[in-house]
Amino acid sequence: MTEADLPVPEPRASALTLRGVSKTYGGTHAVAGIDLDVPSGMYYGLLGPNGAGKTTTLSMISGLLRPDRGEIRVAGVDLGSRPREAKRRMGVLPDRLRTFDRLTGRQLLHYTGMLRGMKAKTVAERTDDLAAALGFEDALGRIVSDYSAGMTKKIMLAGAMLHSPQLLVLDEPFEAVDPASSAKVLEILDGYVANGGTVLLSSHGMDLIEQVCTRVAVLVAGQVLEEGLVADVKGDQTLEQRFVELSGGLGEVEGLEWLHTFSD
Ligand code: ATP
Known about the structure:
Helix content is 34%, strand content 24%. The chain has 9 helices and 10 strands. The N and C termini lie far apart (80 Å).
């Protein structure tokens, strides 16, 4: 069989598309007209230095922040004109962990499921499954404000997955999560992706991004500086080296000599 006889692979459906999306805060162009195509059934990494616009971008995708301009489609559904349908297709782990933290873990997941229009019985079953998988069964009866940072992240991750969305938008999902729990979360996400789910994640952990992501976009000063398969973006460097290069290099640290003159 020659190459010409091989079946042409179907192009992957897009889990998420952004066209000309912009957000300005006062005089700051946090996101300056970006385009993104996130194919379904993969991990997709959104990288960028501090202040590059990652959280702003993810907040607009999640429907938490309205873009000044541009179009966002979730699995083909326009977020601007059909927000309920678009939001039903995604689960979100926001960066700043603001939640209804006077509830117990079980109550929080119950109300999250109710807001998603789920049946109470299904929510209860899935709550138990997620708590067992993520290892917070013992915390379900406790008030969320008393959780540690890592536990809060886990319960919010569970909340994002509860309604089995097509797309998971995860802002720094592994920050404050211990290595054993991170491995567990990755195992769950691997199964999700293998079955067609899509994970859009932002992380400063370059090793992790390099390990799991098929594609990445590198955002610098609100613009997509580079996008593509991880192997193509990093070339013959590590992803971390390439990231530092795209972020403007390391430069020299100057003017901190006073730090070496210790006070009494
Ligand atoms: P980090 O890696 O530090 O979390 P980030 O890439 O997520 O950074 P954003 O939080 O999206 O960056 O911020 C992008 C720019 O927008 C920054 O200059 C930030 O100061 C500004 N910005 C973000 N939120 C606001 C806000 N609510 N009001 C004013 N400026 C904001």
